[in-house]
Design brief:
Blueprint (H helix, E strand, L loop, with lengths): L6 H13 L10 E5 L1 H4 L2 H13 L1 E7 L6 E8 L2 E8 L3 H10 L4 E4 L5 H6 L12 E13 L7 E3 H8 L17 E5 L4 H11 L10 E3 L2 H8 L5 E6 L7 E2 L1 E3 L10 H5 L6 E7 L7 H11 L1 H9 L9 E2 L9 H6 L3 E12 L3 E2 L1 H16 L7 E6 L6 H21 L6 E4 L16 E7 L2
Parallel strand pairs: 1-4, 1-5, 7-12, 8-9, 8-10, 17-18
Antiparallel strand pairs: 2-3, 3-4, 5-13, 6-10, 6-11, 6-13, 14-15, 15-16, 15-19, 17-19
Helix pairs in contact: 3-10, 3-11, 10-11
């Protein structure tokens, strides 16, 4: 099983593309509109990788004269191919997709029900054939290396950046005024922080210094004993990285495992949406490439977190029960969590694709179903036995889905409502972890 583009699909997409006239009515073979988080760097990288596969020669990048827009083009046997990437915000992407102008909507948030309702006669944007998770994003919260504070809750972080907490002594640190470092308004990193930390409760304090560069922000925080800021994971540099908690869950530091599994509270999904069965073949090909091994390698190169699974031996601290440590002693954890969209046991769209990623991982390494262990978890319930039952049903649901996808007899168990990764009622607690026997 492979995620690479088939020769037949490539040939079909190329034939269709080269048959399309590049007239004023159709200036580009494909338009991608939406999120700056996706469109600034990631989408152009994915488009470039795809065009290199189906075209001839090197991919050229040009401007439209409008800020946050790029045109990527390549020659082919049938003529030139071009793609417009316009990164003006997630909501603009929906409008252009709905109008038929865009073939792909890039979004840093899930589709709203009101948006899905507007186009439900043409396509179901919540369905597997329309909703495509292309990457996972995570934020690093940074302080000066000498700062003794090692963890913060999301709520406290929001109070700090809103100016409600102004001295580190209020948090068990030194008597030192807090200096705020934040990305600029056009940054996808800022968009993530605003969505996950400030939300509708807090507004960024006017004293915050704003930066266009993650690296420069991190460097300045590392020189300021009172500083705190946020950046992408690739820009920690000489600053100190804090662990972040949500509700009563233990604080976690962002890394490949905690972000890819979405256990880390400041992680989020990045999407591309298409119009289901009405999606143009070229857009289908690009989506297939983005979701595959090569596309996900570009995701990692761009600074986001790839969905290609890797095996990690997690650090289990004192908050982890001894029974769980014994259960997983001979295993490593895959950077995949299966999560659910409706009710208690229906896998969401990302999980549907992660089934194939897990099977592909095993095939590439000569491993079998006997090497896997599924561990289900539930959110807090009124009775411990009920939580145990829900967690086992979730693990059984994934086991059945893997069987239907071609991987039978995977071992599974449930761990009830223990080891939450979010506050009570947070749907992230309802998950199935994937563990693989260490060699």
């Amino acid at each position: 099983m492979s995620y690479s583009i088939s020769a037949a699909f490539k040939a079909g997409a190329l034939a269709l593309l080269t048959a399309l006239p590049l007239s004023s009515a159709l200036a580009h073979n494909l338009e991608i509109h939406g999120s700056n988080t996706v469109g600034a760097t990631l989408a152009p990288m994915l488009v470039t990788g795809y065009l290199e596969q189906i075209g001839n020669g090197s991919v050229q990048t040009g401007a439209t004269g409008v800020e946050n827009e790029k045109i990527l083009g390549v020659t082919s046997e049938g003529g030139p191919l071009s793609v417009l990437v316009a990164a003006h915000g997630s909501s603009t992407g929906f409008r252009t997709l709905a109008s038929g102008q865009a073939g792909i909507w890039a979004s840093s948030r899930p589709v709203k029900q009101s948006e899905a309702d507007q186009v439900n006669a043409q396509a179901d944007l919540t369905a597997l054939e329309s909703e495509h998770v292309i990457a996972i994003d995570g934020l690093a919260i940074l302080v000066h290396p000498s700062n003794p504070v090692s963890s913060l809750s999301i709520q406290t972080l929001g109070q700090i950046f809103a100016g409600e907490i102004r001295n580190w002594s209020e948090l068990g640190g030194p008597d030192h005024a807090i200096s705020l470092y934040a990305r600029d308004d056009r940054s996808g990193t800022w968009d993530t922080f605003k969505s996950l930390v400030l939300g509708k409760t807090y507004t960024l304090d006017s004293s915050a210094m704003r930066y266009e560069s993650n690296d420069q922000l991190s460097d300045d925080v590392s020189r300021d004993p009172g500083g705190i800021g946020f950046s992408g994971l690739a820009s920690v540099r000489n600053s100190k990285l804090l662990a972040i908690s949500d509700g009563n869950a233990p604080a976690l530091k962002p890394n490949q495992l905690t972000v890819a599994s979405e256990d880390y509270p400041l992680s989020r999904r990045l999407f591309m949406y298409t119009m289901g069965n009405q999606t143009p073949e070229f857009a289908r090909g690009l989506i297939e490439f983005a979701l595959g091994n090569e596309g996900q390698a570009l995701v990692a190169e761009s600074g986001f977190i790839s969905q290609n699974p890797i095996a990690v031996k997690p650090e289990l601290d004192s908050s982890v029960p001894d029974t769980f440590k014994r259960l997983t002693a001979e295993y490593q954890r895959l950077t995949v969590n299966f999560r659910f969209s409706e009710g208690r046991t229906k896998l969401d769209n990302k999980a549907q694709r992660d089934l194939l990623r897990v099977i592909d991982y095993l095939e590439q390494r000569g491993r079998s179903a006997d090497d896997l262990l599924l561990i289900g978890f539930a959110d807090a319930q009124s009775h411990e036995l009920r939580a145990q039952m829900i967690s086992e049903l979730r693990a059984l649901s994934v086991r059945k889905a893997l069987h239907q996808a071609g991987l039978p007899r995977v071992a599974y168990t449930g761990y009830g409502q223990y080891m939450p990764v979010g506050g009570s009622g947070n749907q992230r607690n309802g998950r199935v972890e994937v563990w693989i026997r260490a060699r």
